From TrEMBL:
<feature type="transmembrane region" description="Helical">
    <location>
        <begin position="107"/>
        <end position="131"/>
    </location>
</feature>
<feature type="transmembrane region" description="Helical">
    <location>
        <begin position="286"/>
        <end position="305"/>
    </location>
</feature>
<keyword id="KW-0472">Membrane</keyword>
<feature type="transmembrane region" description="Helical">
    <location>
        <begin position="12"/>
        <end position="33"/>
    </location>
</feature>
<dbReference type="InterPro" id="IPR000515">
    <property type="entry name" value="MetI-like"/>
</dbReference>
<keyword id="KW-1133">Transmembrane helix</keyword>
<dbReference type="Pfam" id="PF19300">
    <property type="entry name" value="BPD_transp_1_N"/>
</dbReference>
<dbReference type="GO" id="GO:0071916">
    <property type="term" value="F:dipeptide transmembrane transporter activity"/>
</dbReference>
<keyword id="KW-0812">Transmembrane</keyword>
<dbReference type="Pfam" id="PF00528">
    <property type="entry name" value="BPD_transp_1"/>
</dbReference>
<dbReference type="GO" id="GO:0005886">
    <property type="term" value="C:plasma membrane"/>
</dbReference>
<feature type="transmembrane region" description="Helical">
    <location>
        <begin position="240"/>
        <end position="266"/>
    </location>
</feature>
<dbReference type="InterPro" id="IPR035906">
    <property type="entry name" value="MetI-like_sf"/>
</dbReference>
<feature type="transmembrane region" description="Helical">
    <location>
        <begin position="185"/>
        <end position="205"/>
    </location>
</feature>
<dbReference type="InterPro" id="IPR045621">
    <property type="entry name" value="BPD_transp_1_N"/>
</dbReference>
<feature type="transmembrane region" description="Helical">
    <location>
        <begin position="152"/>
        <end position="173"/>
    </location>
</feature>
<keyword id="KW-1003">Cell membrane</keyword>
Amino acid sequence: MSTPKSIAVAVLNKLGAAVLVVWLTATVVFLALRASGDPLEAILGGPGSQASPEAVAQARADYGLDQPFFMQYLSQLWRVATLQFGDSYARKQPVADLLAANVPPTLVLATLAFVLAWVLALAATLAASTARGRLGRAIRSALTGIETVSSVMPQFFLGAVLILVFASQLQWLPATGGASGGARALILPVITLAVPIAGYLAHVLHGPLTEADTAPFATTARSRGASESRVLLRHTLRHAALPAISLSGWAYGSLLSGAVVVEVLFARQGLGRLLLEATTVRDMPVVIGSITIVALLYVVVLIVTDIVERIVDPRGTARRELASSGSDASTEVVA
């Protein structure tokens, strides 16, 4: 039963898993970046820098690189635990300031794409489930084909096509512009991110909805005089949505990772573009800070998804109603 206590236990379990995920992520990134070369090169401007021995020694002391390797690792874990990631090697700015400037645009982009993906998936599922007769079969076949193509379509390809059609040829929407371009500059990036996820969610919704439509509870509801729209919206869609809701955490994480491609393609400011540029120059504090924030965001989304799934799950509702009716019956017997 999805009681507040069970939800709290589930949240605590997710938080425990989050600590493990962040630790593993920070460790892997730290080891990978150190294995790729001396971070001092990134601090001093690359392998071609002509820094004096005094400047090299000062830089090692300033960034703690003169400490033993294990002490550097522990210092990095402490910075991750306290979310104080230090200063960027390349930009010479606090990583916290860079994250504060780049996380909100990515969150807006991913959240809008997530909402649009669900709207498109629900619209396609409802259209396919309500269509009847020969025309209905044709509509379902067409929608199934569209979902298959969209779910496997690479985002860089879809984004390039949208830019070519709507920005270059028709000139309806800007291809770039970032925050200065306003809401119109968000349309093409959001569609680019949303369409593949929408196709996947629609695929996940179709099968369970078909099964729920022929389930005994749907037949019982129809026998009681419920209309098809009531059966769909009140009974079958709730059952069908559960697998898609369970996958929403993965879907949002996929949107965050896809933001790297979309932000570069549409020249938008954001966490993905910041992470890509930092990785190119081995800016370890920015890379670890960015990946840690992404991991924390992913865990938060998983927690929210788990709570929503427990609330929407009709089996939990049925159990609560059964418990409530049992309590009422006991009260009547006692009375």
